[in-house]
Design brief:
The protein is 68% helix and 0% strand. By secondary structure, the chain is mainly alpha-helical. α6 packs across α12 and α10 packs antiparallel against α11. The radius of gyration is 22 Å and the shape is globular.
Length: 314
């Protein structure tokens, strides 16, 4: 959520070096350098300001604290592996993911917000969240179902739903990091058409600068339109499939609560997505839409985990 707020408030370059802020520990220590940068860019509306610097650095402080916590979890998992009777592979792998996240965080700043890097950083954050959730679920006692077979039958559909949600999260991240959220400002059409002119070649060319094509030219509006519309189409696919899966889960004894939560979260995500377009991307709604994606992912992951557990009881 903090990362989404930093990105959506254009604070990603609030401190244009890494890991400090103009070589200092906090923006307060770098106030002279920040003031000079504000003057050079012509005011507070550029990429650097004291507020943006603090937002970026608070995000980094929280990331560092989370990294230390994950290292501690990995150490405990290794030292207590026999008592826990669980492999420490997951928490140790999680340490590697967090290190990679730190590298992506550095590249996000030093490579000037390249869409592929920023999207990778977003995906890495959600991967970290998912692995922590899986680790937590693994510590919970398995629920005892009166009949485990109906819950176990949800494993394959839940896995497909998880893949679809992850794909849609990528499309949403790609839309956000390319600043394509307002490429279509009307609903349900886009620019007054059901299928406007689009440029898929430049839209999904991953090795390029922000706002540029692979050849270094300005990214055309048709490319931004393609990015945005693919996210909309993905939303429709996810809505139909996850809606069906949520309904089926709700009708399954032993999983009714998860099914109801899935359906409620799906409706909320749709409302937030529509509000982003209708109200021209208010930052609170956009951040909530990012958080909703994480919660929808968590529910899908939990459903898949519980279905796998039930399969072992059949």
């Amino acid at each position: 959520m903090l990362g989404a707020y930093v990105r959506l408030s254009d604070a990603g370059l609030g401190c244009p070096d890494w890991p400090g802020c103009y070589g200092k520990l906090t923006p307060l220590h770098a106030k002279d350098e920040i003031a000079q940068a504000v003057v050079e860019q012509g005011g507070e509306h550029g990429p650097v300001s004291m507020g943006k610097a603090w937002r970026e650095m608070v995000h980094r402080y929280f990331a560092q604290a989370l990294g230390l916590m994950i290292i501690a979890i990995a150490v405990i998992a290794w030292r207590r592996r026999e008592a826990l009777r669980q492999s420490p592979a997951l928490p140790i792998t999680l340490v590697g993911v967090v290190i990679l996240q730190g590298i992506f965080g550095m590249w996000t700043v030093t490579l000037l917000l390249k869409p592929a890097i920023v999207t990778g950083h977003l995906i890495g954050g959600l991967l970290t969240f998912s692995m922590l959730l899986w680790l937590w679920l693994r510590q919970q006692p398995p629920p005892r179902h009166v009949d485990a077979e109906p819950v176990a039958a949800l494993a394959a559909p839940a896995l497909l739903g998880l893949v679809l949600v992850c794909t849609q999260i990528f499309l949403g991240g790609w839309t956000s990091t390319n600043y394509a959220a307002l490429a279509c400002t009307d609903l349900p059409t886009c620019q007054g058409q059901w299928w406007p002119e689009m440029n898929f070649r430049d839209a999904f060319h991953f090795v390029r600068e922000l706002g540029k094509t692979g050849e270094g030219e300005n990214l055309p509006m048709q490319a931004l339109t393609a990015i945005h519309l693919m996210h909309r189409i993905g939303a429709v696919v996810v809505a139909f499939y996850v809606g069906w899966l949520g309904w089926r889960t709700w009708r399954t004894d032993g999983a009714k609560g998860l099914g109801a939560a899935l359906l409620a979260m799906l409706v909320l995500q749709w409302l937030l997505g529509l509000s982003n377009v209708h109200f021209s991307l208010p930052i609170a709604v956009a951040v909530a839409h990012n958080g909703g994606a994480a919660l929808l992912l968590a529910l899908m992951l939990t459903l898949y985990f519980r279905a796998r557990q039930a399969r072992m009881q059949v």
